[in-house]
Amino acid sequence: MANELIAVLFIIVNFGLVVLSYKLFGRKGLYAYITMSVIAANIQVAKTTTIFGIVTTLGNTMFSGIFLATDLLSEKYGKKAAMTAVFIGFFTQLSFLIVTQFSLWFKPDASDWAQPHMEGLFSLALPVFTIAGLISFMVSQNIDVFVFHFIKKRFPEDKWLWLRNNGSTLISQFVDTFIFTAVVVMFGLWEMEIAVDIFFVTYLFKVILSISDTPFVYLLKKVNPMDL
Q: pLDDT digit string (tens) for 77-128?
């Protein structure tokens, strides 16, 4: 299957799972999906792929689902609920980094086959990507929540939901991409020339993803969750 087709399918599935999580479990479902997404995104971002002839990292789609979830929390439950999601995501990333490092410290048995694969994934790239993700996530998510409510105070009607959603996400995703790229370059995993290309391409994909989630945020606005 072509990467482009997989990418479109992945976007639909990811946003669809956000809707399903909210429908089945309400606010708690969004918190749970954010927790899963930050772990998956920090693993996926270590892999590069080619979509429409452009080299990009994975993880962007999962992170776009996080921004969709926090925007919905802001819209329906307020700033406090959205900030709770931000801190849950931050704590999850930090805990994941700590736990994965412990798994490498154990001396493997002679019958073990997983250690070299875990070392390849967790020993260098993952900690750097996770640290970069921690910093960029915390800063960008705070900006996302702030900008969303800043716009909502001035344009509170439902017809402006697209502006609140896209405006806050596009600004915060730019900051997120810049910080993440800068930290990875600082640790020496990407050369500057490659990093600049990745920055612009990644942000371009995030713009596309942000626009793509607009129908889903209107759908989520109308969903009556089976809140636990």
A: 999 999 999 999 999 988 988 888 898 899 999 999 998 888 877 776 667 8
What is the pLDDT at residue 227?
Answer: 63
> Whole-prediction pTM value?
0.86
Whole-Å CA distances, 226 to 17, 33, 150, 181:
15, 16, 29, 39
**Cβ–Cβ under 8 Å, residues 139 and 177:** no
How many angstroms separate the CA atoms of 225 and 22, rounded? Answer: 6
Assign domain 3-105+115-222 one CATH number from 1.10.3470, 1.20.272, 1.10.1760, 3.30.70: 1.10.1760
Structure confidence at residue 73 as a pLDDT band (50, 70, 90)? very high
pLDDT value of position 124: 64
- Provide the residue ranges of all domains of the chain, joining segments of one domain with +: 3-105+115-222
Q: How far apart are CA 69 and CA 217, in angstroms?
A: 9
The overall longest dimension of the chain from CA atoms, in Å, is 64
Question: For residues 186-215, b (16+ Cβ closer than 10 Å) or e, as one string?
Answer: eeebbeeeebeebbebbbebbeebbebbee
The number of helices, as runs of H, and strands, as runs of E, in the chain is 8, 2
d(CA 20, CA 2) in angstroms, rounded, equals 27
